[in-house]
Design a protein that fits this description.
The chain is an alpha+beta fold. It folds into three domains: about 190 residues, Lipocalin; about 80 residues, no CATH class; about 260 residues, Rossmann fold, CATH 3.40.50. The protein is about 15% helix and about 35% strand. The chain is built from 13 helices and 38 strands. The chain has an eight-stranded mixed beta sheet, sandwiched between helices. It has a four-stranded antiparallel beta sheet with strand order 1-2-3-4, with no helix packed on it. Strands 5-6-7-8 form a four-stranded antiparallel beta sheet, with no helix packed on it. Strand 15 and strand 16 form a beta hairpin.
């Protein structure tokens, strides 16, 4: 018997991200997140791992603030990272507030980190040239501020006046958990100064732009540092916006648009020889036609755009070039996994390199023979692995590196299952069974519906971890219904603009198959979901009374009003249509339209929401909770004033899991609900 996998056990585990390989291939650096000593937040440190497995892992950074995951190696082996640690040369200022993320440089041979650039609005990302000292930097700067000094002056003026008001004349005005003002994301470029000096007067590559979508779209710098390719978002009235790929000369700021305005483009990656740019293209969708994704290659000399891997039928992510321009790698959701792919150039031949687990952060070695990466599974959090850069369908080998992520075992039994939907489409899922589940002792079932809705259950999940429930005796099924990624375009097409249609029937078909198993007690079932999964939880509550309990987190409830309160409502028009001319596409699958049926079923519902969520605003939960109370539907409302779309703080995560487990115990096991003493 292993120890129960509790929330405290999960919070004790390190969370690996942002794996990077040094230019000489002799050092791996990874961001390792843990609960901070005060227990109130997560804090990240950078660790060095020996790819040859000869030296123990070594912690590189240590600060109270922790480090950001934005890291990049320079050609000399020094490491760039972001951190909100204080400026060591600045005088203490008790009224200054929390510092924003600044850009720091750690020497290749260790020692003290050096502060390079500290804009008042913070650094949001960095890309470093392979063979030069040039950088591209994403930074948040006041509109019309000519330079960083003017930006700082405006910040001081607002602080001195006690002003936090914002004035908007464009749209959107919010993104995920923050307002898009008074600063906007800008693209800067600079060279690393010699000695101990800091970057002075970086060049703003597009000072007239309303904003460049660094966080979502990305940017890259050429190996010689002479140009940058970035995503420039251009509002063209509501609801239309353009996500263009633009090439900027780093010495003059001269811009050249690379893509036609026939789609949205993102995640550019410049080839090592500077002749091509790889990127992802998303087609403009409509209520009749689902979005389609393609991997493209842009010839910077001719402007020609070539589609790559068009026969793979997957949605490419995380583009990475090999050591030269002959190989491009990408990852993609793939039948309940997240696989790595190799594209040969110029032939375009594609090889799937990994066939199991979720592989991210690909780091090809300088000789092109191997790839280091992070790999997780439904059963294990991310670990550093290595695999051959050419062989097909491998199981990567783990590196025993001493960071502390090894050694975790969960008692749950994990199975890959599948059913056939009514239209003949295969639908996959993961089933997580408690150790003791058997025909003699069947377990209650909890159905987890993923968010997105374009997404997939294919990796370890910190926010929705099935093993915590399994250790409490619940079986958990993780279905990938229509609109899930990794199953080809057909899976998106059959669920597009059918939110409560085919995705719902797929979820129910998987549920029917699982409750027929002898290890499952079909009389004790619940359904949970967050974001789109929360939408589905609300929809299910109005369609059937078969579940004993519903948990709905950050969920959509009233789709007509949601259009006007979410951070970019007009983007939903690409799937649901124009609500100003016809609300039918929103009302047809709005869970609130089924309130009467919910009132008749009276399935108990646990509502969970964060005040700082702008993607699914708190108004959705407030309307839902008012409706539930008004109609006499039993339930509870767990409200987090300091969380956004996710629950990020460790203590709040404890409250989240504790409340959910107690709610499930009450309605599936017949035990009294226990309110946490802190609530």
């Amino acid at each position: 018997m292993t120890d129960p996998f509790t929330i405290d056990r999960m919070l004790s585990l390190p969370r690996l991200s942002a794996l990077r390989l040094s230019p000489d291939g002799k050092r791996l650096v990874v961001a390792v997140g843990r609960v901070a000593p005060d227990g109130k937040k997560m804090a990240t440190a950078l660790w060095q791992v020996d790819p040859a497995e000869g030296a123990p892992a070594r912690r590189l950074t240590r600060s109270t603030a922790g480090e950001g995951a934005a890291t990049a190696f320079l050609a000399d082996g020094s490491l760039l990272f972001t951190s909100s640690r204080p400026d060591p040369d600045a005088k203490p200022d008790k009224e200054a507030g929390k510092p924003a993320h600044a850009l720091w440089q750690l020497p290749a041979d260790g020692g003290e980190s050096r502060l390079l650039l500290a804009p008042r609005g913070g650094v949001s990302g960095v890309a470093a040239a392979r063979n030069a000292t040039a950088l591209a930097i994403g930074a948040s700067i006041f509109r019309h501020a000519g330079d960083l000094e003017a930006d700082a002056q405006r910040a001081e003026a607002r602080k001195d006046a006690g002003v936090e008001a914002l004035l908007f004349d464009d749209y959107p005005i919010r993104h995920w958990d923050h307002y898009l003002g008074p600063r906007v994301e800008r693209l800067l470029t600079a060279a690393i100064p010699d000695g101990d000096g800091r970057i002075q007067n970086p060049l703003d590559l597009d000072p007239t732009a309303a904003g460049v979508t660094f966080e979502d779209g990305g940017f890259d710098i050429s190996a010689d540092g002479s140009f940058v390719v970035a995503v420039r978002r251009v509002p063209n009235g509501v609801p239309e916006t353009f996500d263009d790929l633009v090439l900027y000369d780093t010495s003059t700021g001269e811009a050249r648009q690379l893509t036609p305005r026939n789609a949205s483009y993102g995640v550019p990656a410049i080839a090592p020889d500077g002749r091509h740019v790889a990127a992802v293209r998303w087609s403009w969708s409509s209520p009749q036609d689902a979005e389609q994704t393609a991997l493209i290659l842009i010839n910077l000399e001719t402007g020609d755009i070539r589609t790559l891997a068009d026969d793979v039928d997957r949605r490419p992510e995380h583009l990475t070039w090999g050591p030269d321009a002959s190989v491009l790698y990408f990852t993609a959701d793939d039948e309940g996994h997240h696989s790595a792919y190799r594209v040969e150039l110029p032939s375009g031949d594609v090889t799937r390199l990994t066939a199991s687990g979720a592989v991210t952060d690909l780091c090809p070695t300088p000789d092109g023979a191997s790839i280091y990466a992070l790999r997780s599974t439904v059963s294990n959090p991310a670990r550093i692995v290595r695999f051959d850069a050419r062989a097909a369908d491998q199981t990567p080998a783990e590196l025993p590196n001493g960071v502390g992520e090894g050694g975790i075992t969960v008692a749950s039994r994990v199975e890959r299952i599948g059913i056939t939907a009514a239209d003949g489409t295969p639908v996959g899922a993961w089933l997580v069974l408690p150790e003791a589940a058997s025909a003699a002792s069947p377990a209650p079932l909890v159905v987890f519906v993923h968010g997105g809705p374009l997404g997939s259950w294919n990796s370890w999940h910190w926010r929705w971890n099935p093993h915590i429930l399994a250790s409490r005796g619940f079986a958990v099924v993780l279905p990938d219904p229509a609109l899930s990624t990794g199953y080809g375009q057909h899976m998106l097409d059959r669920g597009w603009n059918q939110w409560g249609g085919t995705p719902y029937t797929d979820v129910m078909a998987v549920t029917d198959a699982v409750v027929a198993r002898p290890e499952i007690d079909a009389t004790r079932t619940a359904l949970m979901g967050g974001s789109y999964g929360g939408y589905m939880a609300n929809w299910v509550a109005g369609q059937t009374a078969r579940f004993s309990a519903i948990v709905t987190h950050a969920s959509l409830w009233e789709l007509v009003g949601f259009h006007g309160t979410t951070d970019h409502g007009p983007s939903w028009e690409l799937e649901m249509g124009d609500p100003y001319t016809d609300e039918g596409g929103y009302r047809r699958y709005s869970p609130r339209e089924n309130l009467k049926a919910m009132a008749e079923a009276k399935t108990p519902i646990l509502v969970i929401h964060g005040e700082l969520d702008h993607r699914v605003p708190i108004s959705e939960a407030l309307i839902l909770w008012t409706d539930l109370r008004r109609m006499g539907i039993p339930g509870k409302f767990l409200y987090f004033p300091d969380e956004n779309h996710w629950v990020l703080k460790p203590q709040n995560a404890r409250l989240w899991y504790g409340t959910v487990l107690s709610f499930l115990d009450e309605h599936l096991n017949g035990t009294a609900f226990e309110r946490d003493a802190l609530l």
